[in-house]
Amino acid sequence: MIYFDNAATTGRKPDTVISAVTNSLKKLSANPGRSGHKMSNDAAMTVYKAREKVSDFFGASGPENVVFTANCTHSINFVIKGVLKRGEHIIISDLEHNAVVRPLVTSDIDFSVATVSLTDDNVTVNNFEKLIKNNTRMVFCTGASNVIGKRLPIEKIGQMCKRRGILFGVDAAQTAGVVPIDMKKADIDFLCIAPHKGLYSPMGLGILIAEKPIPFTLIQGGTGTESINLIQPTSLPERFESGTVNMPAIAGLIAGIDFVKQKSTEKISDHEFQIVSYLYESMRKDKDFEVYTDGFDRYSYAPVLSFNVKGKPSGEVASYLDEKGIAVRAGLHCAPFAHKKIGTTENGTVRVCPSVYNTKNEADYMLNVFKSIKKL
Amino acid sequence: MVCTTVNTIGRLYGISRDSGMECKKVRGYIITTGSITYAIKGRDILRRLGYRARIEKRTSGLGSDGCGYSIIVEGKDIEKAEQALRNAAVKILQINEL
Known about the structure:
The complex is a heterodimer of chains A (376) and B (98). Chain A is an alpha/beta fold. Helices cover 38% and strands 14% of the residues of chain A. In chain A, the strands form three sheets. Chain A has a seven-stranded mixed beta sheet with strand order 2-8-7-6-5-3-4, with helices on both faces. Chain A has a four-stranded antiparallel beta sheet with strand order 9-10-13-12, with helices on one face. In chain A, strands 1-11 form a two-stranded parallel ribbon. In chain A, helix 6 (154-164) links the parallel strand 5 and strand 6 (167-171). In chain A, helix 1 (15-27) runs antiparallel to helix 7, helix 3 (72-83) runs parallel beside helix 4 (98-105) and helix 5 (121-130) runs parallel beside helix 6 (154-164). Chain A is globular and about 70 Å long. Chain B is 33% helix and 34% strand. In chain B, the strands form two sheets. Chain B has a four-stranded antiparallel beta sheet with strand order 4-5-3-6, with helices on one face. At the A-B interface, helix 2 of A face helix 2, strand 4 and helix 3 of B.
């Protein structure tokens, strides 16, 4: 199978990640930070090592600020529902995933939606700033759209938030491991990460890096610490890690980060972008295709491409590609805001996202397959 | 060996006067941090400062602070160790002699 659905999760994991997971199941199958015996302590040391690697990779203050969650959506919920309360206001973008929108729609929190300019980052920043009110507590936005790949000017938004005394949270599901992220440099207070995407780690794990306090915990339970106390502990990271963490995935995460560092984020991004921009340029010149951005440059976009074959439902195109051994995702990608922005709410789009393992030959094969789709 | 000033005469007659020194051999200290994360962080800090330090799960005092982890530090200069940990925002629940 030619796997181009890496925006959902990286389809092929490095051998080192698979080995790390297997080794963890064989030798670290003890509950980390709970029991005090050798295997439990070894597991705890592995978890701590993962926290150190994550902290170092993303420019966080320290390993104790790194929280392991079930997935990036959980991380986002912890931030939005844990920090904000009734009467407060948050600004999000018009490209957000439902992981950001749904928690707000079902809450008492007031929110505004800033328009992202596809051509001018300064306009985007101004659009966010114009929406600030007296009760605005936070800006939360995606690092890059999971539909059209558009990158938001995170550092500029972070600077604006710092200047205005507002918290800044980022959904880095599509950018972690693909775009360099430095929390200190970008003035990011909360970073939510999906390590099973750009960090090539197993599914079932999310990361939240919190540089500022999160007053409310959504989940309470056993943390292995201060257990005589019936109130949830106050210190990160255990405060947000009630229950057993995903030890095998955390072991895999260490290997995944090492893999990305060894190849370098810059080179991974260059490689993926070459494939995606090749597809984009080919489709843009072909009247039978519809693409949704006017340009697709390396520094304004993550390597995520949405398109349609004119006259064909996106789902039908994806099914046909699947029959030909090519994996893509069609539909609304859990991001109705983004589809509304580009006018594809009715049909959705077909989405392609390469990983470090995809090749230009695979892109050529897909373009050839499209020739037969058009005849259907 | 750790020596502390003992003020006995002052305590009896309400006069503050040093009466001597009381010394005892201290092998090390138990620094209770609570979570394993802070125990590991604290251990690494102390090791970088040249202390011999290891982590152990708490076996006593569960009724006061609950389960948790401690850093066992060998040596006598506990003030410097404690300061280093507090400077690094390591939460310390209590410090006891070994």
